[in-house]
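Quick question about two entries, pasted in order.
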Amino acid sequence: MSKHHPLLQSFGALLVLDADSRRIQAVSSNLAALIGISVSEGHDQTVSGVLGRRLSQRMRRELQGQQRLAGPLTFTRPANSTRLQLYAYRTGMHVVVEIEPLNSLGKRRLLGTVNERLIRLAESSNQEELLDCLVRAVQELTAHDRVSICHFDSDWNGLIVAEACTGRLPPLLGQRFPANDFPVTLRCAYERHPVRLIQDVAAPSEHLVPSGYPVELNDSFLRAPAPERQYYLRRLGVRGAFSVAIHGDTALWGLLFCHSALPHPVAPPVRDAVRTLVQMATQRLLLLRARQEARYLQRVQDSLVLSANSQLEPQSPHQLLLEQADTWMTLFRAHGVTLWANGSIFQAGNTPTPEAISQFVVRLKKAHVHSGPWCTRDVENEPLTSSLAMPGQCGALAVPLLMSTSQRGWLLFFRPEQVETFYWAMQPKMAPQAPLMTLPSAAWHEEVVGKSEAWQRVERLAAMDLGEDLTLAISAYEISSLNMHLKRERKALAEANKRLEQLAHFDPLTQVWNRYRIEQAIDAEIVAAKRYGATCALMLFDVDHFKQINDTHGHSVGDDVLVSLARLVEGSLRGCDHLGRWGGEEFVVLATHSDMEAAVVLAERLRGLVATLHIEAIAQPITVSIGVAVWRPGDSCKTLVARADVAMYRAKRSGRNRVEVATKEIF
């Protein structure tokens, strides 16, 4: 059916109005049955003649200058005392009005149930508990036979991770749906309209009167499912379907879908309640994930080799690897680790031969020029590694160590094969006359071999932190060795010490202070605050949507953003203030002799300044989220930074491109 001959579901009626919302151009064929206005009368009538003068005036007033109504309007037809809900939006040169009946649901009871479930969601301590609570709450509200949550992997295959099932439909928990069940058009539709209801997949569809009236109804909530979607739901044994999109930070995380074996209505208030629960659960899910990643990053940071003694007694790369290899392999779920520095190879665990490592490094130097990590979970089929002799290796993660502007070392992790068995609810390619979905015990399964576990984003971030600290430790060792052998060469010794100071105190990419140096400055300022009563403040900020910049434009453009931002901010600070790169896209500003008021003013000035930054390859503005913390008695460097970090993440959750002030306690 073309866009000029749209089909509609019968649980609601539809009117197509002119741009001024005064005259009716077309109506759905079920309008008479729903609100008592015949199709012939509805065509070319005034809106006020059908909806009443007060309601039509209110609709026009609220739509004036707007794309859609902020919320639905309710009204009652005097002829049959039917309560109805009206929702309107603009499409092209028309206004589309959707009308649904409102059944009595007991608002107080519904509100109480939703509030109780919101509290339970907020109290969930892990993802499994959170999602189980969500599906049970939704099934209680909608009474569907099966409520499931489907999570998308990086290839857009769906995995059922939580479910509440009554037994009328077979369970799907633990089974997968192939990516071709979720085409791009469907995912894009969920991005625009997160809620979708199919009350009865087998019900006859309604049409517009007059037939073929040229109006685009792809955004209509009442649009009928496409034939291929009807066929798909029939294969699942489903008559009624209700689904809500679950959005992650940057993309669609998954779907909550409710299925029934029989036709199943879902009243508008219930749909709104379910969407509220999904939004709350999504926020809680993102928070739990952020906390889990923070704990993991802290564990990696605790394993870092840089310490106060490393400058006094620097260790050789071989010593570093021997002492830390087991810890690193555990943290990164690897069975082998290799450190390549200055042409030397140091290995631990199960790794390729030195010859294979050398060839691998040569290829990395040519193919991987940016400062971010490189990884694969399929060594045998990855172009860069497919011809290398790497028996027993399926996954590889390579972290560049920026020893200098012209020299790089490499930290390499290797993973073994992870054989996985995927149970599919239906085969990805099923014959047209295939039977309905099988029971879980007979579900089609696939054994995936030749791949390792995937390298998670937080693991790649942690590996970069580890690489930065290793770079400094190795450089410190090199300089120490030079000092022992070049004591009589004063000129060479002076140049070496200058290099050591640069490496020890400055970030190689942005040329601002590195984490080690800014920590020294924070400690010194805290000592002054304790001894002399001086005030100081800390601003922790990072670039909003930096991962999206890297993914869209490449790491080279991401590096340009960091370098340009650092230059801009450093050039705007007072001589007594200091800027340091904390790690990744995070920076720290240490403001001396600053109370809370002055710190907030400075933070707002920096936020506004960054918004003026222009990078040629990026169209969208660059923004930052800033957390501000002022030193208080009892604060250490760790607690001061932690309070600023909490405030910064609060700024991100509150919409980004803003400043938040730290509280006294760390939550």
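Here is the second entry:
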Amino acid sequence: MQEKGTISIHTENIFPIIKKFLYSDNEIFLRELVSNAVDATQKAKRLSSLGQFSGDLGDLRVEVAFDEKEKTITISDRGIGMTAEEVKKYINQIAFSGASEFLEKYEKAKDAGEIIGKFGLGFYSAFMVAGLVEIETLSYQEGAEPVHWECDGSTSFEIKKGKRTERGTDIILHINEDAKEFLDRYRLQVILDKYCKFLPVPVKFGTKSLQEPDGEDEEGKPKYKQVESDNIINNTSPAWTRKPADLKDEDYLEFYRELYPMSPDPLFWIHLNVDYPFNLTGILYFPQVKNELEFQRNKIKLFSRQVFITDEVKDIVPDFLMLLHGIIDSPDIPLNVSRSFLQADSSVKKINSYISKKVADKLSELFKNDRKGYEEKWKDIGLFVKYGMITDEKFYEKAKEFGLLTNVKGEHFTLEEYREKAAGLQTDKDGNLVYLYSSDPAVQDTYIQSAAKKGYDVLLLDSPVDNHFVSQLEQKLEKTSLKRVDSDVADKLIPKEEATETLLSEEQVKGVKEVFARAVDKPDMTVEVESLSPGDAPVTVTVDEFTQRMKEMAKTGGMSFYGNMPDRYQVVVNGNHPLILRILNAENQEKQALLARQAVDLALLSRGMLSGAELTAFVNRSVHLIGD
């Protein structure tokens, strides 16, 4: 048997196209060829279970080997092999998939979906790194003869009788000079670990040294000897492929540690398992994220029947869940020929919605079954939930029941519970409900304490998404606004019908404003005199709510032009505080200026705005005043 011919293709330059455009990264040649070998092995097992093959299956592992001297990489399997006619059909006719025909033939058989290879051009990825590719194959069919096929990257091929004596296939790649990086054990091991770590058939790559017990030494201490063992690179039965009923918590945790050995244990997880209207399995873990919004992204890995595809899953997983970790495995996600990029079609959208619903259901279950435990996890999971409420309308509707608001005391409330809590005292003169919040309790403590004196509650909203979350709540909650606790004095944060009586005359108010305007003397600060409670601070420095929100928005990448806006501060002088009258009645203007400047600096200090030379001047002035 010997034959020469040309490969059946529609264009003479198919190989340059394969090499430069169909695959985005040349290392995936190994993924494609090992996947094909696993596919052939799965077919042999399937045919045996259906009674279509009665021979001895034997050792079904796939083996990857390389020879640096000969400049070859060989991928071997003991799968179903191919006859000469099948080689012509499946290899020479590019883009015809043997697996598709196999699936059609056995579509009624249970677990026929185990077949991996339905990607047509996968074999030809070999020419990304090889100038010559050989196939040695022997079909499982009785009486079949071994076949040898080779091609040098042109459209010409040669097929003749082969040398293989056992069922299966060897793919021998003669590596190009510009791809000799792949003739390195470490490089190949890294690629196999990346793409083939969870394939369902054992994959051997050389051997590894192990220590085995070897009796005891003269002192009775145990001795060990070095032995060589097959280096099996994959876990053939990863947690996501098993039934949830067969797994314990420790199994899920061990699998997480296998995926992310340097990460702390996750908070909890969701096992995905659906076969209609699409096929999807996987495990999604909630990591301990805290406030690192971007740090943990791209931790979800996409597989297709246990073959790693990519860790860029933004089209499959809702954006707010990109912070999760774990595995998604689906044969129904459409991929291009390189399996590297997702196409946003209806299947992907359905999967996206399903994942969002499963996460919402899990969070709702946790909240209802163990609210205390849920609240303890809120510091970690709150980021996911708030982000989801902002970006996903359907998720928001579900999350209204388990999304929490936390106050500066560490107390947690659902949206409805907090509305009931704030409804009485924090309703303004126009019937609007006002939620006060702090973005930095340490810096804003003076303002928090001032609000607390009036019986107001203050929420803690300090995560990277909270600026957007505030806007979301204002849009969703009827007649409700949110104000930063340091955006105004306490009396004006929630305007009431009753006004505080003014203790100063109009002339005195004018005088106070002039004294403090001279003491401040900064273009970014304006002075206002207000009639506040005598128990409130004599001077308060505020920044209006709008300005603070826009600047925070700019920090997170939105409305960046607001980040260049100059800071504008309002110095609010409490005309009813005894200190103000004392300053006004000081013996001379110098004393007035000294006391006014001190009062302003105290306000700046409480806001964390006093530093450098101004702080030094404040300290020296304080010493002088104490001495007086």
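Reply: The first strand starts at residue 2 and ends at 6. The longest helix spans residues 346-369. Hope that helps.
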